[in-house]
Amino acid sequence: MLHNICGAKLLNLLHILKFISIFFCFYVSKAVILHKISASIRMILKKLYLLNYKNIAEATLSLSPKFNCFIGHNGAGKTNVLDAVYFLSFCHSAQTTQDSLLIRHDQQFFVIEGDYEHDDALLDSMNIYCGMKRGTKKHFKRDKKEYKRLSEHIGLIPIVLISPADTLLIEGGSEERRRLMDLVISQMDRPYIDALNRYNKALQQRNSLLKNEDQEPDPEVLSILEEQMAMEGETIYQKRNAFVEQLKPLFQQFYDTISDGREQVSLAYTSHCQRGPLLEVIQRDRMKDRAVGYSLHGIHRDDLEILLDGHPMRREGSQGQLKTFVIALKLAQFDFLKRQQTLPNTPILLLDDIFDKLDASRVEKIVQLVSGSHFGQIFITDTNRDHLDQILSQGHFDHKLFHVEEGEIKS
Q1: Which of 18, 78, 83, 160 has its CA 20 to 30 A from that of 59?
Q2: Of 342, 359, 376, which residue sits at a domain end?
Q3: Helix 219-259 to helix 360-370 angle, to the nearest 10 degrees?
Q4: Do 388 and 380 form a contact (C-beta atoms < 8 A)?
Q5: Cα–Cα distance list, 78 to 71, 256, 340, 354, 392 (Å)
């Protein structure tokens, strides 16, 4: 009898193990399938509605999943369409931090609304809405539900914008290059945004104490703020450094392709964190900081060093070389984001007047790049129809052509 009981228990145990094995294999295979799907999923903006946005009175655009081309003279409103698409990803304009400036003249509000679909029909569609009245805060909603924190939206619809203003990445101050790093990392790493906000808050409080001429700052309070800056700053540095190390080979590859390898360019990340523990670096010159009235050290002074043939690009580069550098850097940014498993979708690519100041050879290389299947949905503006025709002639692409004149958009 004892033998029979043991046999029954053993049989039950084997059944349980078999069930666990089947259950485990099912979910592992499902996870693998989902991973493969997510690696190639594209988020497509199917319809865009604009009301009183900059110089556009009203427009409803049905869009192509591949190429959306906007042709018109300078100032016609082409860039405003791309800016609206950018807004739906980042909750703000690429051109101004003052949302009230986006409202059309003599109007009291603006509305942007986008209907998104995945190229995989099994996944849900999505509606993104933003509206704002003068004198009030904007309302940003996903599927009619308003966000409590706008940072929760960042990264949901990854996007890369290439525009004439990007030359500031080379010609502008270090804050422009830090903004690039923050813009990319924040799309794939929400805790990074939180760490950056905490660092900036501590930095502002420390600077406020340092510039107070009527009272000496409390050393204990300064120490607390410095410790906060150091802790958050080290985290930010590690993530920025990892990003740049992954970006460099991608950037080099794109630059070599566009320039036919005619120049040697390099990109290097510099930070006060490289001088030792950040807390020591910050506290070392506290008296000097007090004398000038602000913090001289920290990750708020980080920079990207940009060289052409071993010399600073801003002094040595021609306009065509500067433009090539920026385009290669932004395409590398696209590639970097596309490779991230934390992002659910392939980025949307916005190309605003990118062919100006480039020779025919470089234009041809860029056309070949963006015409490939590697990229997802693309929005492109130009004053020259020939460039767009050149792109479309590379293959039988799904595309839509829009003519823009004084804020009016016609397909």
Answers
A1: 160
A2: 342
A3: 100
A4: yes
A5: 7, 30, 30, 13, 19
Per the structure, the complete domain to which residue 67 belongs is given by 42-158+346-411
Question: How wide is the angle at C-alpha 393 spanned by C-alphas 387 and 396, nearest 5°?
Answer: 135
* Torsion sign over Cα 24, 25, 26, 32: positive
Whether the CA torsion 18, 22, 23, 24 is positive or negative: it is positive
The first and second tokens of residue 247, run together, are 């970006």
The answer to whether 361 touches 260, Cβ cutoff 8 Å, is: yes
Instruction: Give the integer Cα–Cα distance in Å for 138 and 34.
Output: 36
**Residue pLDDT, tens place only, 335-368:** 999 988 776 678 999 999 988 888 888 888 888 8
Task: Give CA–CA dist 202/225, Å, rounded.
Answer: 5
Cα 198–Cα 202–Cα 288 angle in degrees, nearest 5: 145
CATH classification at residue 99: 3.40.50.300
Ranking 11-25, 31-45, 323-337 by mean pLDDT, the lowest is 11-25
Mean pLDDT rounded to a whole number for the chain = 87
Pairing of β 139-142 and β 56-62:
unpaired
Backbone angles phi, psi at 272, to 5 degrees: -65, -20
Residues 6+ apart with CB under 8 A from 346: 40, 41, 42, 43, 158, 338, 375, 376
